[in-house]
From TrEMBL:
Name assigned to this protein: 3-phenylpropionate/cinnamic acid dioxygenase ferredoxin subunit
GO terms assigned for molecular function: dioxygenase activity
Top-level taxonomy: Bacteria, Pseudomonadati, Pseudomonadota, Gammaproteobacteria, Cellvibrionales
Residue span(s) of domain Rieske: 7-102
Cofactor list: [2Fe-2S] cluster
Organism the protein comes from: Sinobacterium norvegicum
Length: 104
């Protein structure tokens, strides 16, 4: 892996388990998710009508849109329920010590 393409986005102590945080990388809002299965990063904008998923809830490995309730799998971005049908982009992460890097 080319480490020049890693960008530090958060520290592991800054987000409790079961919570999310919106980070902006190159002008793009990305939702960093701390699930019980680990850390994942997914686009913050719902693919249905552009609500911010950072205002929704994380339930296990699903994030729920605050506007119309669509669920997305934070592991692969899959749209799991209506009204959303378009998957969201996910981003690989690398964790070194307490530092969380996004792989660009
Ligand atoms: S904006 Fe997210 S489900 Fe409609």
């Amino acid at each position: 892996m080319d480490d020049n393409k890693l960008q530090l986005i958060a520290s592991t102590g800054s987000i409790p388990a079961g919570k999310t945080q919106c980070v902006t990388v190159d002008g793009q809002e990305i939702l960093l998710c701390h699930s019980k299965e680990g850390w994942y990063a997914i686009d913050n904008m719902c693919s249905h009508a552009k609500a911010r998923l950072s205002e929704g809830k994380l339930k296990g490995c699903k994030v729920l849109c605050p506007l119309h309730g669509a669920a997305f799998d934070i592991r692969d971005g899959a749209a799991l329920s209506k009204p959303a049908s378009i998957p969201l982009k996910t981003y690989p992460l690398k964790i070194t010590g307490d530092d969380i890097f996004i792989v660009l």
